[in-house]
Design a protein that fits this description.
- The protein is α+β, with helices and mostly antiparallel strands.
- Helix content is 34%, strand content 19%.
- It has 2 domains: 96 residues, no CATH class; 48 residues, no CATH class.
- It contains 5 helices and 7 strands, in the order H-H-E-E-H-E-E-H-E-E-E-H.
């Protein structure tokens, strides 16, 4: 009768050697897909200067970690508003910080305010007919969320032989 002895450290090392490149490749594919689907736009800092690059696209990162029994890949963003873009948001108010004002570029702003017959003197200031300053604004919400993470996860994860699941979308925890 034959006896089989399994060397567990060698088994774990072989499993990690085989699975780590597959998980890394899948994470990189998901990251590239997420960067393609992430929304683009002009973003300005509080001083009104344009920020270089697309903030959401550049904040997306991937990482692969290993433990004894698990090879884990993560793709996501550390930006605090990334989940709002991905899952949508309900209408909410945005307030300025400590007496400062919010600056918005609005090309049709003067035409809209003139057509409505109110110029909001005192509550808003207008500069160069394109920039508007407010102490607070009512954001209409994001009713059409952009699934820039789950779409590539399902697409590339399944193509590489993984079973993918995602949690149901809810906006209850978002603004």
């Amino acid at each position: 009768m034959a006896r089989v002895v399994i060397d567990k450290p060698k088994t774990h090392a072989f499993a990690q050697k085989v699975t780590r490149p597959l998980v890394r490749r899948t994470c990189n594919e998901i990251l590239l897909g997420a960067r393609r689907l992430a929304p683009r736009g002009t973003h300005m800092s509080g001083s009104g200067k344009r920020k270089l690059g697309q903030p959401l696209q550049t904040s997306l990162k991937s990482a692969v970690t290993m433990s004894l029994d698990v090879v884990e890949g993560r793709v996501g963003s550390s930006a605090n508003w990334a989940a709002t873009v991905h899952q949508g948001s309900q209408p909410h108010r945005i307030y300025s910080k400590k007496g400062k004002t919010l600056k918005f570029e609005w090309e049709r702003g003067m035409a809209v305010l003139t057509a409505r017959g109110r110029r909001r003197k005192g509550r808003s200031r207008v500069h160069a007919r394109r920039f508007f300053f407010f102490a607070q604004v009512t954001h209409p919400g994001n009713k059409r969320p952009i699934r820039y993470l789950t779409t590539p996860m399902h697409q590339f994860g399944r193509a590489n032989g993984f079973r993918t699941t995602s949690l149901p979308v809810t906006r209850s925890r978002l603004p």
